[in-house]
Amino acid sequence: MVSTVLVLLGGGLGSVARFTVGGLVDRRLPGKYPLGILVINLSGSFLLGLLVGLGANHRLQLLLGTAALGSYTTFSTWMLDARRAEEDGEPALAWGSVLIALAAGLLAVWLGRVLGHAL
């Protein structure tokens, strides 16, 4: 029961953080490229790598990793935006978004783990 409550609380916090960060980025840097989603997914990847690199215990990984960061990052919105760009006749934007986010996401999680191990 405690784990369920932790996931509920962490998921709620993560979704509010995603809404807040995405809105801030999109208002400050408007454009066709989904920068808000990129910032969310890269920061979430980095934080998850950091959490693992720090050797967080199971409960903390459940609360912060699965719940908070799982609801903070947004694979489905990222894919929908890429598909919409392709439908709007901008396949370079669509595929560029996917490739940039994948490469940068792998780098972000690696950097987080390296930093976590160093701390």
Can you summarize this structure?
This protein is mainly alpha-helical.
Describe the structure.
By secondary structure, this protein is mostly helical. 86% of the residues lie in helices and 0% in strands. It is built from five helices and no strands. The longest helix has 28 residues, at 91-118. It is globular and about 45 Å long. The termini are far apart.
In angstroms, what separates the terminal alpha carbons? 32 Å
Total helices: the number is 5
Query: Looking at the structure, what is the overall shape?
Result: globular
Unreliable stretches (pLDDT < 50, length at least 5) are none
Number of strands: 0
SSE sequence, one letter per element: HHHHH
The average pLDDT value, as a whole number, equals 92
- Helical content, roughly? over 70%
* Main sheet summary: none
Write down the Rg: 15 Å
Structural class per helix/strand content? mainly alpha
Instruction: Please report which band the strand proportion falls in: under 5%, 5-15%, 15-25%, 25-35%, 35-45% or over 45%.
Output: under 5%
